[in-house]
Amino acid sequence: MTYEISIDGKSYRLDLNKEDGRWKCALDGEPVEVDAVIARPNVMSVIIGGQAFEVKRERTATDMHFWVKSARFAVDVRDPRSLRSRRAKGGGVEGPQKLLAPMPGKIVRIISAAGTEVEAGHGVLVIEAMKMQNELKSPKKGTVKQILVAEGASVAAGEVLAIVE
Amino acid sequence: MFKKVLIANRGEIAVRVIRACRELGVRSVAVYSDVDRASLHVRKADEAYHIGPATASESYLNIGKILGVAKLAGVDAIHPGYGFLSENPTFARACADAGIKFIGPPPTAMEMMGSKTRARQHMEKAGVPFVPGSTRGMEFEQTRETAEKIGYPVMLKAAAGGGGKGMRLVRDPKDLKSSFEAARSEAERSFSDSEVYIEKYIENPRHIEVQVFADEHGNCVYLGERECSVQRRHQKVLEESPSPIVTPEMRRQMGEIAVQAAQACGYTNAGTIEFIADQNRNFYFLEMNTRLQVEHPVTELVTGLDLVHLQFHVACGEKLPFAQDDVQLRGHAIECRIYAEDPDNNYFPSPGKITLLLLPSGPGIRRDSGMYEGWSVPIDYDPLLAKLIGYGASREEAISRLQRALYEYFVGGIKTNISLFRRILAHPDFRAGKLDTGFLDRLLADSSNKIADDERHEDKVRVAAIAAGLFAVLEPAAAATSNGNAAESTPAKPSEWKQSGRIEALRSR
To answer: Can you state the angle between helices B307-315 and B11-24, rounded to 10 degrees?
Structure first.
């Protein structure tokens, strides 16, 4: 089967097939001999041409990262057969964008109320956690369609706080 | 020895003290707020009692509630840890009134050392060296005269201050007036006390502190020093013992002065005298911390002593079991404070659920931790998660063991400052022991000193791509795209039926 994998913005095509109990793998068409074992959930031991790697998969509320040794990569995996992936593919900053809470915390201030026109990078809300405040910025130029939280509200990581269109 | 001790704290220090209780055959009593029910200290203690909401003033800082639990559980003593009520003389006094031993110094010593100006007046009498400046708060005109006398640059400081609040550096005489007023109003706002004093500013200072220990029979010893110059926003990040610049003669001088200072205020139990040192090894008294310090493990490793055990023995009225000449320093220890902070977002706190935790071990590695896999770091308290301490026969060996351990250490689901320690330990100035309190800010401002990788970056990218695909096949439930089930914080266990069905389906393709 074939996956489309984007790492820190760059795309790779990965063909993976199991033959006689071994993985046949090709990265961007180039064959790679690989042996992999899941050591525990989210931890994989990968051996490629005798080189051993411990790879960790980390999912937070808003994204997924892979760690190879001590290097961290933002990774997006798409299975082209999957409907959800196909729908998500058009993503980018087109259409309505959700602003998610990057961490659990308390909303201390709403900078741009619903209806405000914002530039990309313009502050929308301020969230506080562990006595520190963090400004959440608009991902695109547009209008704040909706603010889904009130000042003073406690929010969970990944909660939708606002929508910018 | 005590029969039962309450630990009026949380996090890694509560776990540390509970461990000492178990080693000494003392029953331990934990207290917890609403958000700490699942915290590690509650799991490790013999007894645990709820004391209120997350807000510290209604739980860990609430003297009435803590003493209520202490009476209910029938404890002999209370260990305050660090932070919270540990340096609160009112609490120490309330413990004494309730017939419960406070494991720490007498309240009179805390009061004397709690105000920087009062501490200075007493310490100068005891012959302790000070940075030139005023011993108490002054009006502007006097402050200006003192500044002329001691010479610029000068530092204005709040008498009741701490943590960098109410502090102003003045390099130019014409800025003195505005800085003086700003420091006063900040001091008033932060501490309800506008008293501001002035000191000569030491360029590129080192922060070196001496551990002291006193029993209740007049014996007091010093247990070597700790270098704590690696700081950010006046918060310590990494500490080591011994200091790379302290010579045996300087250690003896600092130690003897530290003991004099402790004795001058009638000190008992564990305490720390903080000094500021210039690059010519002149040192001046900064303040006394009247509690066990976060960084006490580095002293434990180089002296071979267990400071918490010692605190218990001394608080029971026992004599110190050794004399100054028996104290020998051996080897080198370095501590990294692992914080829940995001290195890519200006070290902003990063609470949340720890989804994966891989722990280092092996020779010369000690971990004092309050976290575990599956635990959610609450948003309400200090972001210190754990301390990783490396020990070796030499400084170089301690550094290489720590580097190796940091390579093994992995905390997933939240952001931590682990990568920062890789940069610090690899930095040529750090390795040369060339430290001052500005070291870390300079390191962070300079993006060019990223660590040289052992493999080419492109190779790792290829490994990440291959692993991402393999994960999607082998452990698919959690491999949804970032646009998928994002709000779900725990990956569901993959159905084995579904998984083998899927693999079969792939085979037949």
So the answer is: 60
- Partner B contacted by A80 (CB < 8 A): no
C-beta atoms of A16 and B503 within 8 A: no
Query: Considering CB atoms only, which of A1, A12, A130 is closest to B349?
Result: A130
Contact A103 B380 (CB under 8 A): no
Asked if B386 contacts B409 with a C-beta cutoff of 8 angstroms, the reply is no
Angle between helices B395-408 and B418-426 (to 10 degrees): 150
Cβ atoms within 10 A of the Cβ of B150, count?
Answer: 16
Q: CB of B393 within 8 A of CB of B332? A: yes
Q: Which domains does chain A have, with CATH numbers?
A: 2-89 (3.30.700.30), 97-164 (2.40.50.100)
d(CA A67, CA A72): 4
- The residue ranges of every structural domain in chain B are 4-103, 132-200, 336-433, 458-507
We find that the CATH architecture of domain B336-433 is 2-Layer Sandwich (3.30)
CB pairs under 8 A between A and B: 183
Residue B491 pLDDT exceeds 60 = no
**Which residue in chain A has the smallest CA separation from B406?**
A70
Q: Pairing state of beta strands B356-358 and B410-412?
A: antiparallel
Contact indicator for B128, B260 with CB cutoff of 8 Å: yes
DSSP H stretches of helix in B25-175: 40-44, 63-73, 89-97, 107-114, 116-125, 140-150
pLDDT (tens digit per residue) in B334-351: 999 999 998 888 888 888
The stretch B247-263 carries a mean pLDDT of 97
Is B395 part of the annotated catalytic residue set?
A: no
Contact A12, A27 (CB under 8 A): yes
Concatenating the DSSP letter of every residue in A134-149 gives: EEEE-SSSEEEEEE-S
Answer yes or no: are the C-beta atoms of B158 and B166 closer than 8 Å: yes
Q: Which amino acid is at B234?
A: H
Burial label for B57, CB within 10 Å (0-12, 13-18, 19+), is exposed
Task: Out of 2.102.30.10, 3.40.50.20, 3.10.290.10, 3.30.420.10, select the CATH number for domain B4-103.
Answer: 3.40.50.20
Is B132-200 in CATH node 3.40.50.880?
no
CA–CA min distance B160, chain A (Å) = 21
Contact in structure between A139 and A93 (CB atoms under 8 Å): yes
Which token pair is B364? 């010369």
**Active-site annotation holder among B27, B291, B401, B423:** B291
Helix/strand/coil for A49: coil
How distant, in Å, are the alpha carbons of B55, B56, B155, B210, B246 from that of B203? 39, 37, 11, 21, 18
Question: Could you tell me if B382 lies within 8 Å of chain A, comparing CB atoms?
Answer: yes
A36 neighbors B467 (Cβ within 8 angstroms): yes
Spell out which residues of chain A touch residue B470, defining contact as CB-CB under 8 Å. 16, 23, 34, 36, 44, 46
Quote the CA–CA distance of B308 and B373 in Å, as a whole number. Answer: 27
Model confidence pLDDT, tens digit, residues B11-64: 999 999 999 999 999 999 999 999 999 999 999 999 999 999 999 999 999 999
Q: How far apart are CA B404 and CA B400, in angstroms?
A: 6
Q: Which of B159, B186, B154 is nearest to B170 (CA)?
A: B154
